[in-house]
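Hi V.,

Quick status before I head out on leave. The structure for the redesign project is tokenized and pasted below; the design run finished overnight.
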């Protein structure tokens, strides 16, 4: 279960700065709009100099060419695609705290994936896992929405998600699915510290084999008129409930 290779291009200040901080050796070069002489531009120039990364001032039209006129904010970085790190087994072996994982089954929208990576990073999740045949890959658009999380949160695209969940369970990690039809509410069940949260795409939900691999299914209680949450919001609710319980356990 090797981590997906990084994209060849990362754009936007958050994503580029995050990559510089996390793995400066992987940044081949940075292109900065020659009109960006504001504080953010100067901060990026200083960060590139500290990291020893080549930075070039270029016209906006050249930056537009990297991503078809996308909203690059005036900065684009070329990334070494050979710098994929670690695998899931190594990450789990090296952990000093109980694993906290996010599994996404069927999240194909780049903006949703970027938002999920961002919330997973914020919650301190150790990795995000998705099936190769039903998932968005890491693209420049995903990196921009993730605001740096795509460069620092391991993202694994696996060939067989059901088998991967079985392997996770063999490590005494509970596989807990969030589903609107579940009989038990999130806030009323006991949750283990070592946990892999599984969420399906909004509407379609998890596939049958994925659902069958879950040790427990819970639903997020809804008190308004809407019937479901965006997958990234649901991921945040689930992950931060685990974070909250861990913090409460340390205080007890």
């Amino acid at each position: 279960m090797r981590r997906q290779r990084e994209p060849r291009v990362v754009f936007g200040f958050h994503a580029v700065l995050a990559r510089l901080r996390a793995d400066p050796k992987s940044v081949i070069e940075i292109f900065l709009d020659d009109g960006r002489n504001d504080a953010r531009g100067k901060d990026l120039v200083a960060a590139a100099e500290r990291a020893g990364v080549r930075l070039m001032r270029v016209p906006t039209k050249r930056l537009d060419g990297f991503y078809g006129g996308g909203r690059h904010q005036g900065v684009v970085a070329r990334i070494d695609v050979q710098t994929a790190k670690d695998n899931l087994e190594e990450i789990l072996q090296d952990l000093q705290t109980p694993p906290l994982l996010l599994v996404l089954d069927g999240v194909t929208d780049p903006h949703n994936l970027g938002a999920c990576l961002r919330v997973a990073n914020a919650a301190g999740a150790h990795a995000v896992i998705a099936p190769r045949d039903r998932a968005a890959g890491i693209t420049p658009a995903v990196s921009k929405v993730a605001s740096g999380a795509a460069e620092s949160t391991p993202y694994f695209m696996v060939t067989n998600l059901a088998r991967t969940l079985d392997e996770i369970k063999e490590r005494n990690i509970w596989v807990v699915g969030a589903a609107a039809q579940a009989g038990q509410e999130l806030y009323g069940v006991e949750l283990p510290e070592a946990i892999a949260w599984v969420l399906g795409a909004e509407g379609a939900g998890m596939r049958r084999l994925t659902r069958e691999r879950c040790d427990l299914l819970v639903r997020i209680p809804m008190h308004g008129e809407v019937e479901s949450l965006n997958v990234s919001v649901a991921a945040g609710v689930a992950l931060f409930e685990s974070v909250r319980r861990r913090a409460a356990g340390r205080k007890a």
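Above is the designed sequence. The first strand starts at residue 9 and ends at 11.

G. will cover questions while I'm gone.

Best,
W.
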